[in-house]
C-alpha cells in the first residue's frame, strides 16, 4: 500500500522553478535568472524491500563540503561549492561554473532507521542508503492449502 504524502505547495513551486531552469539550460545555457544562483543538485530516489536510496550529482565538491541531516521525514542535502582559483584576465569571455551554497530537501517516502543511515561520495556522486524500519518491510506469509 502506498503511503500518502503530505502536500507542500512550496515544494511544487520549487520543483516547477527547477524544471523551468532545466528548460532554459537546454535552449540558452548561458542564461541565468540570478547572478550567482547555484542550482540544487539532481537526484535519483528509489527503493527496494529493505532500503530507500538517494543518489545526487555533486561534481567538483570535496566530501567536507557536503552536509546531510534528517529532520522528521525529510532528508536535507546541503553544501557549498567554492571556486578554487579566481582568474581576472581581459580575455575572460564567460563564467558559467557556478559556486555558492545549495540546499535540497527530499521527502523520505517511509519511516527509516535514522541510526543506520550511511552515505558514500565518489567521483562526484553522493549515495545515501536509508534502511527502512522493520515494521515497514514487507513480510511474505505462506498460505497452506488443505
First-residue to last-residue Cα separation: 29 Å
Overall mean pLDDT score? 80
Provide the β-strand percentage band.
Answer: 25-35%
**Low-pLDDT runs:** 32-37
Please state the structural category. alpha+beta
Task: Using the 3D structure, state the CATH architecture of the domain at 36-83 and 98-131.
Answer: Sandwich
In which range does the helix fraction lie?
A: 10-25%
The geometry reads as elongated
Main sheet record: 4 strands, antiparallel
Explained architecture:
- The structure is a single chain.
- The chain has 146 residues and is an alpha+beta fold.
- It has a domain at 36-83 and 98-131: Immunoglobulin-like, CATH 2.60.40.
- Helices cover 13% and strands 32% of the residues.
- The chain is built from 1 helix and 7 strands.
- The protein has one helix spanning 9-27, and strands at 43-47, 51-57, 66-71, 74-81, 100-107, 118-122, 125-131.
- The chain has a 4-stranded antiparallel sheet with strand order 1-2-7-6, with no helix packed on it.
- A hairpin with a 2-residue loop joins β3 (66-71) and β4.
- The longest helix is centred in the first third of the chain and has 19 residues, at 9-27.
- The chain is elongated and about 85 Å long.
- Residues 32-37 have low confidence and may be disordered.
Amino acid at each position: 500500500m502506498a503511503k500518502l504524502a503530505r502536500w507542500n505547495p512550496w515544494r511544487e513551486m520549487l520543483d516547477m522553478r527547477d524544471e523551468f531552469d532545466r528548460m532554459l539550460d537546454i535552449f540558452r545555457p548561458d542564461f541565468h535568472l540570478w547572478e550567482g544562483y547555484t542550482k540544487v543538485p539532481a537526484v535519483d530516489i528509489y527503493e527496494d524491500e529493505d532500503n530507500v536510496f538517494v543518489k545526487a550529482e555533486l561534481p567538483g565538491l570535496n566530501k567536507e563540503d557536503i552536509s546531510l541531516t534528517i529532520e522528521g521525514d525529510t532528508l536535507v542535502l546541503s553544501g557549498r561549492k567554492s571556486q578554487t582559483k579566481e582568474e581576472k584576465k581581459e580575455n575572460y569571455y564567460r563564467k558559467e561554473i557556478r559556486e555558492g551554497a545549495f540546499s535540497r530537501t527530499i521527502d523520505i517516502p517511509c519511516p527509516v532507521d535514522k541510526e543506520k543511515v550511511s552515505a558514500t561520495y565518489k567521483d562526484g556522486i553522493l549515495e545515501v542508503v536509508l534502511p527502512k524500519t522493520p515494521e515497514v518491510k514487507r513480510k511474505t506469509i505462506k498460505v497452506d492449502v488443505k
